[in-house]
Structure formats: C-alpha cells, structure tokens
Amino acid sequence: MAKTRSSYVCQHCGYRALKGFGRCPNCGQFNTMIEEVEEIAKPARQNRQPLGSTRSAPQRLAEVSADMGERLYVPIHEFSRVLGGGIVPGSIVLVAGEPGAGKSTMLLQVSHAIAEEVGTVLYVSGEESAAQIKMRADRLNISAQDLFLLTETNLGQILEHVNRVNPTVLIVDSIQTMYADDLESSPGNVSQVRECAGRLQGLAKSSGVCVFLVGHVTKEGSIAGPKVLEHIVDTVLYLEGDPFQAFRLLRSVKNRFGATSEVGVFEMSGTGMVEVPNPSEAFLAERVINAPGSAIAVTMEGTRPLLVELQALTSPTPFGNPRRTPNGVDMNRLLLVSAVLSKRVGLRLHEQDIFVNVVGGIKINEPASDLAMAAAMASSYYDKPLAADLTFIGEIGLSGELRAVGQLGARLNEAAKLGFKRALVPKMRRKVDDVPSGLKLIEVRNIAEALALAVPRE
Ligand code: TYD
Ligand code: MG
Structure pTM? Predict the structure, then answer.
C-alpha cells in the first residue's frame, strides 16, 4: 500500500501546514483549513512533468524563436479583443465569474464560433448533463459539426478523449468539478484544483491545444479557493455584471499575451450574449435630460474610453446618522468626495443621506470620475439639473483641487463622438492641442470653481 501523508491546506490561499489552525496563519481567514490526505508515491511526481517534455537545455536568447504561431481569431470581436487579438495556441485561459454571470453561455457561443471557422472544439462539462447543454445550444441556435460535448469530471479520462479528438480548443467547465483520481482529496479542494490546472497547463504547453478553464468566484470576489490558479494560467478574464442588469463586462486582469484591463461589453439577451460595439451609447440610452442629480463621467476601461451616467440623490436624513450608499462606485471615493464638498464648498451634507448609482450596473473605480460624482451630488443637493451637453473629467484632491487625469485626448474624442459640446476638466499645465472640433474645454482649478460653472444657482 502506498504511504500517505496528511496535511492541512487553506482553501482560500493554498497555505499548507502539518497541523490545522482555526485561522490561517498566511491569509488570516477563519475556518478555511481542511485536512487533505496525499499519497507519497513516486509515479505521481513523474505525472507532474508536462506531457511530452524532453530534457531541457539552455538556449541563447537571440536564438529563441518568438513565434508562438498565429493567433486564432474568434469571430466574436469583443472576445478576441479582450484576449489581445485572438487565442494564442498552447495558451491556458481562466474565465472567472459569479454563478449566473453567463460563463457557460459565452463559452458555448465562443465554441460555436471557433468550430465554424477555426477548428475542432471539445467542450467538457462537469456541471451540466449533455441534454442540458444541448437545450442551451438550441436556444442559442448552435449546431456546428466540429463541436464535441463531453460530460466528465475525471481528468485522466478527459485527457484520453483529448488525445482521440485532438481539438484545437478545449473548454473545461468548471475546474472546480474536475478531479485527478490519484489524489485523495475531493473535487474543488485546493490541491485538486491546482493539480488539475497544472496538468491541463502541461497539456496546453506540450500539444498546443488552447485550454479555457471556467472558475467560480466566491462572494468576496476571489476565485474560489485557489489564488494559485491565477499563477498557473496565462490569462485571467473576469466576467462581471449585475445579475439584474443585462450588461456583462469581460475584463482581462492578467494577460501574458496582451494588454490587461481590456474590457469587452456584452448584453445578455434571450438568445445568448450579444456584443455591444458602442457601449457609451448603450449606457446613455436611458438618460433623462434635465433631471437633477445626473452627471456624465468619462472613464477609461483599459485603453477604451466609456461614457457613463452617474446619479446621486441627497435627502435629509431622518436619523442622526447620515448614510452613504454607493452602487457601482467605491465607498471610499464617495466618502472623500462628500467630505470635500462639505468642507471646501460648504454643502451641508452631514445632515443628508447620499446615494450614488452608476447606470447600467457597471463598476467604476477610477478617480477621474470624482468630478462627475461631485457634480451629481451638488446638482441633487440644489435640485438643479446640469447642462445636458456637459461632461465631467477630473480627480478631486483633499484640498478641493482638481488633478489632471491620463489619456485626456481619448476621453475627449469619445465625448465629442457622442455629441457632447463641453467638457469640464482640470487646469492643464500645457495647452491641450488635440481637442476634437465641436468640443469646448472648460479648464478649472478646483471643485468650487467647477460647481460655480456647472450648477446654476439663483
Ligand atoms: P450561465 O451561462 O449558465 O451562467 P454561468 O455558467 O456563469 O453560471 O447562464 C447565466 C444566466 O443567463 C442564466 O440565469 C440564464 C441566462 N440566459 C439568458 O438570459 N439568455 C440565454 O440565452 C441563456 C443561454 C441564458
Ligand atoms: Mg455554468
């Protein structure tokens, strides 16, 4: 019988100890350490070698070929763009998101697009039955010849099928349901997830198959269990969005083959995910002109400017303790902006509840939207609408000064494209020379000046 060894592994961060602790000494989470029994067997070690790898030898950097092979362009443009232009052969990509975000739906659509134009796809599901997937596929109108389905959770079996089908792209939905049968711990445990991901990475690197892993996200927003997964894969994509809203953002947070923080915008419809080629237009579609408390911010998502509507509502607090409720913006930014408005502009916000909402269910955490947030709050406070053709760009400092923001040119272009006539921006050190025609820049030094111009007061 093989020798076994028992150890305690934190399901949050992967920390391993010989003894269990109530609180993980590494990440500080409570009750996350679970006993795992491991076989100390030599063959398991050998398995860990990437398939087909031979003995390594040092190479001169100058002689190494940078040719990874052509990227495979998936005809879903937003998806390819987030990946940096297409799928790199032999890469391994993690698609993470909360349950119901639409990971399975999106990957099934991606599988279809690939199977139609690029090559064979093997879609492995450990969560749903083949019939369930078929039902979804019918709903999405998918019937590609080169799309193979497999419902299996045993990794060894899956690798055998991969050898037989020899797909261009392998999709594993989800990594938390997979298990390697030479490991004792149950599926979803940190060591299983890490081992399975490691073996799939070996497969990708040695055979050139592109692997997509679906990963679940916990309530706190981290990928369930293993942070370790993020180190193993080449690219991490997050699919995010408010379940009560139709918009879904696909965001790249790590990418070994392209820029990070690229964002693709999709809309969940009755027949799957639909690309949104002009997100700013979509986010502003329901805007009510001349409503107090609404301001337009221009935020950057990666390299792409996005116009979003920020709404604020201030209302007298019925109790002594005023509330601050952010939805889509960072609580700390909301506190900072309301403190600056109280102290530097003299708004009596200490007796007001404040609600701030980003329309469309997206999250913005860029300080460049501070000015829009402040304008929306002041507009609601005075109950006076802001001009409909005005956008707000700028970060607010603690003494009420406005700070310059990056990529102003791109932001102004997007605002001009959507028909805005004026932009309120921080005072620039040098003249801004690439202002799009039809857009007037109004440069201001501080928040008091900005509000004096933006919020009409009789
Ligand atoms: P799903 O892809 O199963 O999410 P995940 O794999 O991330 O858990 O689907 C998420 C939701 O999308 C589900 O509640 C139903 C909805 N949906 C649509 O609105 N339209 C569609 O065409 C499909 C297939 C699903
Ligand atoms: Mg799913």
Answer: 0.80
- The token pair at 381 is 């406070």
96 C-alpha to ligand 2 centroid (Å): 10
List CB-based neighbours of ion ligand 2 within 5 Å.
Answer: 104
pLDDT band at 44 (very low <50, low <70, confident <90, very high): very low
CA distances, 402 to each of 209, 356, 381, 399, 449 (Å)? 50, 20, 21, 9, 10
The answer to the question of residue 176 being in a domain is yes
371 CB burial (10 A radius; 0-12, 13-18, 19+): buried
Residue 314 CB–ligand 1 contact under 6 Å = no
How many structural domains are present in the chain?
Answer: 3
What pLDDT sits at residue 48?
53
CA of 109 to the centre of ligand 1 (A): 12
Locate tokens 């690219």: which residue? 235
Q: Is 105 in the pocket of ligand 1 (CB under 6 A)?
A: yes
**Cβ of 101 less than 6 Å from ligand 1:** yes
d(CA 424, CA 410): 15
Q: Are residues 320 and 261 in the same domain?
A: no
DSSP string, 125-138: ESSS-HHHHHHHHH
Specify if 107 maps to a domain: yes
What's the CA gap between 194 and 377, in Å, rounded?
Answer: 47
Residue type for 418, please? L
Q: For residue range 288-301, what is the model confidence (pLDDT) as tens digits?
A: 888 999 999 999 98
Which residue segment(s) compose the domain that 38 sits in? 3-42
In this structure, are 249 and 313 located in the same domain?
Answer: no
- CA-nearest of 385, 387, 403, 406 to 395 is 403
Peptide bond preceding 174: is omega within 30 degrees of 0, i.e. cis?
yes
Compute CA distances 27 → 16, 44, 96, whole Å.
Answer: 12, 28, 21
Q: How confident is the model over 132-164, as pLDDT tens digits?
A: 999 999 999 988 889 999 999 999 999 999 999
**Between vectors from CA 388 to CA 385 and to CA 391, what angle results, nearest 5°?**
105
In the structure encoding, which two tokens stand for residue 163, read together? 């050898």
The response to whether residue 103 sits with its C-beta less than 6 Å from ligand 1 reads yes
CB 305 within 8 Å of CB 436: no
